Amino acid sequence: MKLQELLKNTKPLAIVGDVDVDITGVNIDSRKVKSGHLFVAMKGTQVDGHQFIPKAIELGAKAVLCQDMPEAKAEGVTYVQVADTEDAAGKVATLFHGDPSRHLTLVGVTGTNGKTTIATLLYNMFRKMGHKCGLLSTVCNYIEDEAIPADHTTPDPIELNALLGRMVQAGCEYAFMECSSHAIAQKRISGLKFAGGIFTNLTRDHLDYHKTFENYRDAKKAFFDGLPKTAFAITNADDKNGMVMVQNTKATVKTYSIRQMADFRARIIEMHFAGMYLDVDGHEVGVQFIGKFNVSNLLAVYGAARMLGKAPEDILVTLSTLHSVSGRLEPVQSPDGYTAIVDYAHTPDALANVLSSIHEVLNGKGQIITVCGAGGNRDHGKRPIMAQEAVKQSDRVIITSDNPRFEDPQAIIDDMLAGLNKEQMKKVVAIVDRKEAIKTACMMAQKGDVILVAGKGHENYQEIKGVKHHFDDKEVLHEIFNA
């Protein structure tokens, strides 16, 4: 494609060189540049891509898109200066890959918790209804049956548009994607056309990046601000920020709730560890999920499917056949009569929700032993709050390692314990080794009890000093049960 064509949705501040040059690829990673490529120099949070312009040219870049025009310019290379390369990268990538979101019904899901569950359930539901679909999620990306490993909740704009382009080539009609606050703030979704957006909830998370809760909230809101008037915006009326999200959107607004009047409503009729019976808009349905927060997730799925033209009865029949997402409130039954539940809960609110759901099912007939930690090189402020939430709703708590990354695991545990008083500490034990922590919880558990292993969910690794070591909470539990 000609460079001139690629630039039609951007507003260059300056151009040095020939815009009639043929471009054979677009990259933001200089190491991936090949002959004829356009290199986009991004000002990242860790590294400034402008310093890799010479390397990109050395590998064959024919054009450079930048925010700061380099003083030294290579002969035969076109330089395009724009005000914001983050914004321009998405628009250029979208055009290079044939504007794929215009050929798909693309639905984005944002919020603190529930994004993976909602996006995955929509993907599974629409496939069961006979449609070809794609999924972009924290756990894994899918183009129909083809699994593509996910490194980020939302890929960079080049990879994102390449994946959407492959979905179009595979004949997909629908694509469902998680839109993280990082991705929205960094404009990774710039240039995409969404048919709809869903808001789940908003609680403290990622303040290491956003610095303030207001910045975090505004990043989420920017997604809805950018929706076109042809789109729908479904928001959680039970969340205090639910209506804030959609106050400036051009999209058609719909609400869902389990507590008040809304466009889509549900209530729990009965709940046990195998699932729940619900009343959804006057229809009874059995589902293989537990917890009030999952009722909200299912309502969001139901509402989106309704907005995408599906009949209520067809939606509910399909919902009744769907299973929970890997590592989301996933039960593992012990031969000794207690239940272990593996969940990805890694924020205070998510942990509180999961524990509350377990209490609703147990109804005072067993004890809860919680195993949890906190990630390294992330928001330090949530660590003591995580410990407080665990202690508040558990009979015993074992504080352990999560993904320490480049931090000392004991220091992370100390940060968590700092949030507890002497009385709370009586029910807490700290064990750095995660496997030993889970084993200790199993030794404590009696028949009828529940062990919650929180924080890692679907992840099959522990990241220590930059190295990912194989570690799977479910595997560890099965190993202990079979010993």
TrEMBL record:
<dbReference type="Pfam" id="PF01225">
    <property type="entry name" value="Mur_ligase"/>
</dbReference>
<feature type="binding site">
    <location>
        <position position="180"/>
    </location>
    <ligand>
        <name>UDP-N-acetyl-alpha-D-muramoyl-L-alanyl-D-glutamate</name>
    </ligand>
</feature>
<feature type="domain" description="Mur ligase central">
    <location>
        <begin position="109"/>
        <end position="305"/>
    </location>
</feature>
<feature type="binding site">
    <location>
        <position position="188"/>
    </location>
    <ligand>
        <name>UDP-N-acetyl-alpha-D-muramoyl-L-alanyl-D-glutamate</name>
    </ligand>
</feature>
<comment type="pathway">
    <text>Cell wall biogenesis; peptidoglycan biosynthesis.</text>
</comment>
<keyword id="KW-0132">Cell division</keyword>
<dbReference type="InterPro" id="IPR013221">
    <property type="entry name" value="Mur_ligase_cen"/>
</dbReference>
<feature type="short sequence motif" description="Meso-diaminopimelate recognition motif">
    <location>
        <begin position="402"/>
        <end position="405"/>
    </location>
</feature>
<dbReference type="Pfam" id="PF08245">
    <property type="entry name" value="Mur_ligase_M"/>
</dbReference>
<feature type="binding site">
    <location>
        <position position="30"/>
    </location>
    <ligand>
        <name>UDP-N-acetyl-alpha-D-muramoyl-L-alanyl-D-glutamate</name>
    </ligand>
</feature>
<feature type="binding site">
    <location>
        <begin position="111"/>
        <end position="117"/>
    </location>
    <ligand>
        <name>ATP</name>
    </ligand>
</feature>
<feature type="binding site">
    <location>
        <position position="186"/>
    </location>
    <ligand>
        <name>UDP-N-acetyl-alpha-D-muramoyl-L-alanyl-D-glutamate</name>
    </ligand>
</feature>
<feature type="domain" description="Mur ligase N-terminal catalytic">
    <location>
        <begin position="23"/>
        <end position="96"/>
    </location>
</feature>
<keyword id="KW-0131">Cell cycle</keyword>
<dbReference type="InterPro" id="IPR036565">
    <property type="entry name" value="Mur-like_cat_sf"/>
</dbReference>
<keyword id="KW-0460">Magnesium</keyword>
<feature type="binding site">
    <location>
        <begin position="153"/>
        <end position="154"/>
    </location>
    <ligand>
        <name>UDP-N-acetyl-alpha-D-muramoyl-L-alanyl-D-glutamate</name>
    </ligand>
</feature>
<dbReference type="InterPro" id="IPR004101">
    <property type="entry name" value="Mur_ligase_C"/>
</dbReference>
<keyword id="KW-0436">Ligase</keyword>
<dbReference type="InterPro" id="IPR035911">
    <property type="entry name" value="MurE/MurF_N"/>
</dbReference>
<protein>
    <recommendedName>
        <fullName>UDP-N-acetylmuramoyl-L-alanyl-D-glutamate--2,6-diaminopimelate ligase</fullName>
        <ecNumber>6.3.2.13</ecNumber>
    </recommendedName>
</protein>
<feature type="domain" description="Mur ligase C-terminal">
    <location>
        <begin position="327"/>
        <end position="457"/>
    </location>
</feature>
<dbReference type="InterPro" id="IPR000713">
    <property type="entry name" value="Mur_ligase_N"/>
</dbReference>
<keyword id="KW-0961">Cell wall biogenesis/degradation</keyword>
<comment type="similarity">
    <text>Belongs to the MurCDEF family. MurE subfamily.</text>
</comment>
<dbReference type="InterPro" id="IPR005761">
    <property type="entry name" value="UDP-N-AcMur-Glu-dNH2Pim_ligase"/>
</dbReference>
<feature type="binding site">
    <location>
        <position position="378"/>
    </location>
    <ligand>
        <name>meso-2,6-diaminopimelate</name>
    </ligand>
</feature>
<feature type="binding site">
    <location>
        <position position="455"/>
    </location>
    <ligand>
        <name>meso-2,6-diaminopimelate</name>
    </ligand>
</feature>
<comment type="function">
    <text>Catalyzes the addition of meso-diaminopimelic acid to the nucleotide precursor UDP-N-acetylmuramoyl-L-alanyl-D-glutamate (UMAG) in the biosynthesis of bacterial cell-wall peptidoglycan.</text>
</comment>
<dbReference type="InterPro" id="IPR036615">
    <property type="entry name" value="Mur_ligase_C_dom_sf"/>
</dbReference>
<dbReference type="GO" id="GO:0008765">
    <property type="term" value="F:UDP-N-acetylmuramoylalanyl-D-glutamate-2,6-diaminopimelate ligase activity"/>
</dbReference>
<feature type="binding site">
    <location>
        <position position="459"/>
    </location>
    <ligand>
        <name>meso-2,6-diaminopimelate</name>
    </ligand>
</feature>
<feature type="binding site">
    <location>
        <begin position="402"/>
        <end position="405"/>
    </location>
    <ligand>
        <name>meso-2,6-diaminopimelate</name>
    </ligand>
</feature>
<keyword id="KW-0573">Peptidoglycan synthesis</keyword>
<dbReference type="Pfam" id="PF02875">
    <property type="entry name" value="Mur_ligase_C"/>
</dbReference>
<keyword id="KW-0963">Cytoplasm</keyword>
<keyword id="KW-0547">Nucleotide-binding</keyword>
<keyword id="KW-0133">Cell shape</keyword>
<feature type="modified residue" description="N6-carboxylysine">
    <location>
        <position position="220"/>
    </location>
</feature>
<keyword id="KW-0067">ATP-binding</keyword>
